Amino acid sequence: MATRTRRSQRRTEALSRERIVEAAIELLDAAGEGGLTFRALSERLATGPGAIYWHVENKGELLDAVTDAVVADAVAGGAVSGAAGAGEAGGEASEATGAVGALGAGGLPGAARDGIRAVALGLFDAIEEHPWLATQLATQLSRSPWGTVAPRLFESIGRQVRALGVPQDSWFTATSALMHYILGAAGQNAANSASSRALPPDVDRDQFLDTVSTAWEELDPDEYPFTRSLAPQLRGHDDREQFLAGITLILAGITVVHPPAG
Amino acid sequence: MATRTRRSQRRTEALSRERIVEAAIELLDAAGEGGLTFRALSERLATGPGAIYWHVENKGELLDAVTDAVVADAVAGGAVSGAAGAGEAGGEASEATGAVGALGAGGLPGAARDGIRAVALGLFDAIEEHPWLATQLATQLSRSPWGTVAPRLFESIGRQVRALGVPQDSWFTATSALMHYILGAAGQNAANSASSRALPPDVDRDQFLDTVSTAWEELDPDEYPFTRSLAPQLRGHDDREQFLAGITLILAGITVVHPPAG
DNA sequence: ACCTGAACACCGTTCAAGT
DNA sequence: ACCTGAACACCGTTCAAGT
Known about the structure:
Two copies of one chain form a homodimer.
Chain A lengths: L16 H15 L6 H7 L4 H7 L3 H23 L27 H21 L2 H12 L5 H15 L7 H25 L5 H17 L7 H12 L2 H19 L5
Helix pairs in contact in A: 1-4, 2-3, 4-5, 4-6, 4-7, 5-7, 5-8, 5-11, 6-8, 7-8, 8-11, 9-10
Chain A binds a DNA duplex (19 and 19 nucleotides) through α3.
């Protein structure tokens, strides 16, 4: 949320790493991965391409910084205020499990479950707002799990896993499963919001799902019987609801396979 | 497996889409994502850069074709012969759940579970053999879920989900959860095998895990208490075992939340 | 200490010209 | 129908030179 501050750079303040990261996010949001260029960036910042290299090692490091900034924002918001930034798109899907207890009370499994949903939705929303984030996260996590992003995600998800009462020697497994699902599913869902952003969201969405659904229906019946049978289900579905249903699934698995030590 | 056929191109046969894809995979395997260049590719194929454009629309389409070819190979091998292409790296981790039933008998939940593990390991191995595949899959899935790769994955995973007896209206949720976990976890695990491939695999691995583990131990105790506590667990762990433990988790969740109808 | 901007090496892509 | 290879526009990065 603390992302969009300055509109069009007016070379008033000095260049800084923060301002560079901020401008880079704006470029990525506006024009996608291909939109981030040192030339475009320096133009936006009213400077030369070389100037950026004083504050940033290279493009890879810039992308790391940008990803880290957005993720930090997302998990912070999610952990504190619940489903932060959810906007009007949602719907109530958290009843899918039969919601247990209210948020705020510490230590109870129900609160932990809600906490996990909050973190998950925080990332879900961040990826929806910044569609380039999905690919960037995959790249960075598979390239350097020792970076700053992986610990951030592990920490925010893992604390809730711990609060769930999962025995310690299963923390890694449980946290990893949640993290991978969240990133993968959120990325998948970002596909449509990525295409066009200005149109009325529901029209756009339905059209998109209809296209995919139709494409699936036209697959070879011998090679893709299962996928074809999934097409109608795809047409009607609600992204958020599906996403949370997956979370519920994994939470149930965690509870069954790694019941609270007692 | 049907991947490495020709070693050094000898301009004997005519150019073809297949030979281009094949050479592209070799370049990606040898030098990573940055290694795939139309100039390097045309040199390897003993032709000019322009020639490639007769068979392939552009670089994006080439990457799609390459990804599709490798995935097709992976899921085909996984579905037919179990953990195909596992090589000598593995270890027996499938006992983690207490293996149920033998592969080959159709329709039983135990066989379906083994089938899912086989598909999962097929993708796991493919990503380990071609580390660039993880990022490429994330990119492609989040960009075009109507492409050829998504249906391929859905189909091979979903058939096993159906065989598990999951009721139809939960197929999408269950299959998605498995798919996202598989891709995410396999990608994460590819990080180390990506770094250096020629060295003795175990030495390399231990060194890598040690580095990450140490980095985690040095995190701020106030901000990252959970992640720090995970460090020792990281040091000893076995990639394959962890991966399969996650699969077990999700399978359990599926069975609990969506029990077989009837 | 921080910024400028020309220059370098390299990239994806195009296209007139060949066979 | 298929290939050649020079050319174009663009990119990340460097670095001598400025302040």
